[in-house]
Amino acid sequence: MGSAKREASLDKERQSLEAAYTDALILALGDCARGRWGLFHQNSGIVPAHLEERHMPESAKQLERIGIELASVRERLGFADMFAPMQRLNELRAAHGPNQPGEPRLAQMFLDELTA
Question: What are the pLDDT digits (tens) for 43-102?
Fold first, then answer.
C-alpha cells in the first residue's frame, strides 16, 4: 500500500514539474526570441564555457534545473520517453548547420508551436 502511495505522490510531482517545465520553457523561449542567446547552445565550442555560462539567461538556467529534476522523476516512474517539449528542445539543439536559423528565430518558431 505504501508503494502505491509513493508512486501516486511521485506522479503528482511529475505533473507539477511538467507544468513548471512548460512555464519555464515559454519564459526562456521568450527571452531568446527577444535576442538573449544561449538556450539552444548554438555558440557552444565557439565561446569559452565559462563565458557561455556567465551570459546564459537566468530563464535558461532555471529551465535546465527543472529539466534535470523532471527527467529524474520520470525515470523513477519508469517513463521510457522524454517529456515532449523537452524532447523537441533537444531536437532543435541538435540541429546544426549553415542554414539553421539563429537562436531568436528558432525560439520564436518553437514558441509558436507550443502556443498553436
Answer: 776 777 777 777 789 999 999 999 999 999 999 999 999 999 999 999 999 987 788 899
How many whole angstroms separate alpha carbon 90 and alpha carbon 98? 19
| Domain limits for position 19 | 2-115
Per residue in 35-51, pLDDT tens? 998 899 887 767 777 77
Contact in structure between 33 and 98 (CB atoms under 8 Å): no
Instruction: Show the cell assigned to 27.
Output: 519564459
Say which residues have a Cβ less than 8 Å from residue 39's Cβ, sequence separation at least 6.
28, 29, 31, 32, 56, 57, 60, 63, 103, 107
In whole angstroms, give the CA distance from residue 32 to residue 17.
22
For 107, phi and psi rounded to 5 degrees? -60, -45
Q: How many domains does the chain have?
A: 1
C-alpha to C-alpha distance for 84 and 68, rounded to whole angstroms: 14
Taking a C-beta distance cutoff of 8 angstroms, is the pair 90, 12 a contact? no
